Amino acid sequence: MATTTNARVTRKLPPCRAACPAHVNVQGYVSLIQKGKFKEAVELIRKEMPFPAICGRVCFSPCEDACARINLDQAVAIRALKRIVADIEQEQGRVKTEPIPKTHTEKVAIIGAGPAGLTTAYELAKLGYPVTVFERMPEPGGMMRYCIPDFRLEKFVVANEIAYIKDTGVEIKTGVEFGKDITLETLWNESYKAIFVAVGMQLSRKMNVPGEDLEGVFHVIEFLKAISLGKRIDVSERVAVIGGGNSAMDAARTSKKLGAKEVMILYRRTRNEMPALPHEIEAAEREGITFHFLVAPKRVIGENGKVTAIECLRMRLGEPDKSGRRRPIPISFSEHQYKVDSVIPAIGWWGGTPEKSCIPTKLLDEKARGSIIPVDPVTMETKILGVYAGGDIVTGPSSIIEAIGAGKRAAVSIHRYLTGRDLKTGREEIEEITWVKDWKSLKKKQCRYETPIEKPRLSFEEVTRFLEDAKRKAMFEAFRCIGCGSCAECLAEIGLCEIDKPIINDDLCTGCNICASICPFGAISKNEKGVAQIDEELCKGCGICAAHCPENAITMERLTNERILNYALAGFGG
Amino acid sequence: MSFEKLKIVCFVCNWAFGEQELATSSMRKVADVNVVRVMCIGRIDPIIVLETFIKGVDGVLLVGCAPPDCHFVEGNVYAELTVNVLKRLFVLASLEPERLELRWVSPIEEVEFAKIIEDFAGQIEKLGLSPLAREKRDINILENVLAAKNAVTDFRLRALIGKEKELTMGMNAYGERISREEFNALLDEVVKTEFIRHKILLLAKKKPSSVKEMAKILNMKPAIVLRHILNMRRKGRIALDSIEGRTPLYKDVEVY
């Protein structure tokens, strides 16, 4: 069953899958790519989440950080692989899916068509619920559509993914504003049985410095959204972008493409502490954007109500703070000015005050100042029965994949709530990941690839034409996966694997322990009788134990010694 | 000279090559090549290799993933060890060790499978037919290989291969670590003794015989043969059959 995430407490997951907030079966689709089964790979991703192409482009890939391959050379390029399979599917044309038949009668309303809302809608539609998504903006997609510039994520990609979700039977109503056109009450009256609130946070954080309301200061979310909506914004010649996140990179690159002569990024820490993805930083550098580190804005200086310069303070790094990054400390009397025509603060999009108070006050946290809805982190339920919340409105500004994870958890909860089951049973967070080899005994080797798969070129149009060559490259890259997860992770789930299984002859086993020390995955241990025992969850059927058992007590179920011999001698005759 | 095709068996790791690559491998006219895919090259039991030679194959090629690309982390390390032991046994059995080859291929590099096979076929071509594959089989070598096969089936050698990492990387029960050189010396010695003991066992199996007879056949000093026999008697591998005159005759004991 698809929607069982974080119900699996007993199964150990490979590190990539455990690290992914949506628990996408990474090892599974990577091994499918190894075999050249690109279509099946996309289907496998879609089992867990509906946005393979989007995540393949803009996910911050926690899976790659967790990859066990890091111990050998460098992580498998998981995000790039995901993108390639999604692009290949798009290139070859997706088969239109039939709407999933409605097996439940309870209607579910979802407010906000961002990643969290759409994932919940998709998961519930797969379970057979009639789902309606309400969206304020003219097009669904939320931040994915409006706040990521075209050169990172083209609009048609988002549209394609949403078309897929629509195909499964989800109804999306755009131009409906929560708090104005609809409220919780009207939704209850329209006999919706459960509501999922995922309105997100589309407000930029203010710098809180004098001169912030001068003409020429564009807050990043508003700036990117205006560009996405096709408005023309004149950034003039010199632009200062404040902040070091992905949005800052996006804003800087967008300004450059809009015709700014000089774009600089002002960041209060150093390059090492920048939260933006490394390749985004590199891309920004390649496009000629200058970086100024250890500077923080003090005030924006204007003339006739227009920005002319920005005054900054030098910083130095102090002790690490809660996030583990070193805290910047201002150096007094280090004020200096940069001559600029416009300033784009990109310091996060925390909604400082709930000025757009579309959310009923009953849902809000009294203590917190912002418009944050308190929820149970596992079940996503709010203070009101039948109302669930997720995404940025719960966590504060976060990533797409986090929102997808939240959406999946909420879908499980809503399904359980509507079928009258307990929300919590068996849903503890996954703690254990698969056993990973002690890597110290192996020699580390040099990185083979600097850029394993070509990154998009520098222009508004995206590079989409992946050729046959890219397929081959993807297969080679996928081969780098060492498959550290348990065997059931990969192909077996979709019936494509021929797993071999060792069988131990208890009478012959002397308990010498060689198999246990030889097994690369620690799947063999001795039981209370002193006889070797195989943990089938960890075993991957390599057969190394069978080849080296001194007493020949281990035989493989399928590929026995005799079988191998027969294959070896077949066709020679005699 | 009647032209006879060489027989080559190639064991390939499942992960080293894609399916299509294996299917398209062209074969040289001089050789018949049988390609067998196994889950990991470490899966290859030394018994299998020796058995294929007994069945009259001229060369065995193992193709595995280059370290550290093994899909099963270190299966290739064990394959290398197995091949080391086998090559030592080949020398003792007076079979050319070049008939067995282990090739590393990195699964993420583009190497042509056909090229590897052709190289190996060329190597075997130089050696010609295996002495076990000719019309008149070399009985001596056959017996040697049989003894070698029994030796690798037996506990001691397999245990030593299995323990290699533990001994050279970790510590033994007394907190000592054996260096790689020491281990290799140990392996040499064990391979030699095991080989001789299994030859003695084979002789004893054929007919109960005395130490002197065996020493003559084996071309060794009777004292050394006696020492081996006493050692094996302690373990219950060989037993006294009868006493002929004053000479004791020994026979093989079925273990299982």
Question: Would you write up a description of this structure?
Answer:
- With 574 residues, chain A is α/β, with parallel strands linked by helices.
- Chain A folds into four domains: 15-96 and 431-494, Fumarate Reductase Iron-sulfur Protein, Chain B, domain 2 (Orthogonal Bundle), CATH 1.10.1060; 107-201 and 352-418, FAD/NAD(P)-binding domain (3-Layer(bba) Sandwich); 220-345, FAD/NAD(P)-binding domain, CATH 3.50.50; 502-569, 2-Layer Sandwich (Alpha-Beta Plaits), CATH 3.30.70.
- Helix content of chain A is 30%, strand content 15%.
- In chain A, the strands form five sheets. A five-stranded parallel beta sheet of chain A has the order 3-2-1-4-13. A four-stranded parallel beta sheet of chain A has the order 7-6-5-12, covered by helices on one side. In chain A, strands 8, 9, 10 and 11 form a four-stranded antiparallel beta sheet that branches.
- In chain A, helix 2 packs across helix 6 and helix 2 (26-34) packs across helix 16.
- The longest helix of chain A is centred in the last third of the chain and has 19 residues, at 400-418.
- Chain A is globular.
- Chain B folds into two domains: 6-127, Rossmann fold (3-Layer(aba) Sandwich), CATH 3.40.50; 154-252, Winged helix-like DNA-binding domain superfamily/Winged helix DNA-binding domain (Arc Repressor Mutant, subunit A), CATH 1.10.10.10.
- In chain B, the strands form two sheets. Chain B has a four-stranded parallel beta sheet, sandwiched between helices.
- In chain B, helix 2 runs antiparallel to helix 5 (139-153) and helix 3 packs across helix 7.
- The relative contact order of chain B is 0.11.
- The mean pLDDT of chain B is 84.
- The chains are: A alpha/beta (574), B alpha/beta (256).
- At the A-B interface, helix 16, helix 17, helix 18 and helix 19 of A face strand 1, strand 2, helix 2, helix 3 and helix 6 of B.
